[in-house]
């Protein structure tokens, strides 16, 4: 949001609580109250906008079916409101869903998403939005790296850090050679803004700065900061210990951003993932 405001876009942020609304205002944006389940409120918010950036997800890992239903309903609602307008819809997807597991090469923007249909992860949002390109919606999926890192990041690395402090070690699976792509939060925000401003309809963008960091390197860097050891565990063990996120600890999901860089002229400028870990941003996650 700050990236858009700082580049002279007038922004309205959807906020479901007083606390969220205060954050939106602090960033210099207007507030529209509502949430992903309030589809009527979303329709009202879309009446006078030139573009939509949709990053929201319930992240209810205890009820994935409901999570995916809500995700799909939100994309359908937004897309229907934009039909025939050629207005941009920039929405979040994931590089981990691109291509096929075990490809042996980084996934590219040309690899299709495996998330298809109502019962798929995140409700198949990427493919659903792309279905609206022929109906006059400038849909632009942005597939985020597995780690979108930086100070204040509450996601995968922060969750692994919390689990590590609880268990007294940072887990990795097998020899830890599986790779995670990564991007700093500021660099990812620039991908979103540049995509909104210039990417053609149907363009898939990979928000990726580092194609693939061996997860053992991540675990050892985090262990050094936390004063614990890095420990090899089984995929089944960590999947049970860390719901949802645990299954990604074993994932080998490198991703390229060469196509996005050529389309947008983007190059990363933020810190690397290991630099952010070394800076202590995940010590008290």
UniProtKB/TrEMBL annotation:
SUPFAM superfamilies: NAD(P)-binding Rossmann-fold domains
InterPro entries on file: Epimerase_deHydtase, NAD(P)-bd_dom_sf, NAD(P)-dependent_oxidoreduct
Residues covered by the NAD-dependent epimerase/dehydratase domain: 3-198
Record's protein name: SDR family oxidoreductase
Organism: Pseudonocardia adelaidensis
């Amino acid at each position: 949001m700050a990236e858009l405001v700082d580049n002279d876009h007038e922004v309205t942020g959807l906020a479901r609580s007083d606390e969220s609304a205060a954050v939106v205002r602090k960033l210099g944006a207007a507030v529209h109250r509502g949430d992903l389940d309030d589809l009527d409120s979303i329709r009202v918010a879309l009446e006078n906008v030139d573009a939509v950036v949709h990053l929201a997800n319930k992240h209810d890992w205890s009820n994935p079916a409901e999570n995916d239903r809500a995700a799909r309903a939100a994309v359908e609602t937004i897309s229907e409101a934009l039909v025939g307008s050629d207005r941009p819809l920039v929405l979040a997807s994931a590089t981990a869903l691109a291509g096929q597991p075990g490809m042996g090469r980084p996934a590219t923007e040309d690899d299709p998403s495996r998330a298809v249909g109502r019962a798929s992860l995140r409700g198949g949002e990427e493919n659903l939005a792309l279905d609206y390109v022929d109906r006059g919606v400038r849909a632009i999926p942005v597939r985020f790296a597995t780690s979108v890192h930086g100070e204040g990041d509450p996601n995968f690395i922060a969750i692994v850090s919390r689990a590590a402090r609880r268990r007294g070690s940072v887990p990795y699976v097998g020899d830890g050679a599986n790779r995670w792509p990564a991007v700093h939060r500021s660099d990812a925000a620039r991908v979103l803004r540049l995509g909104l401003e210039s990417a053609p309809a149907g363009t898939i963008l990979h928000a990726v700065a580092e194609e693939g960091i061996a997860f053992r390197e991540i675990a050892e860097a985090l262990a050094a900061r936390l004063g614990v050891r890095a420990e090899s565990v089984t995929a089944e063990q960590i999947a049970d210990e860390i719901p949802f996120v645990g299954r990604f600890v074993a994932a080998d999901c490198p991703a390229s951003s060469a196509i996005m860089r050529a389309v947008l002229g983007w190059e990363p400028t933020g810190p690397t993932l290991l630099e952010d870990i070394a800076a202590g941003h995940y010590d008290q996650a």
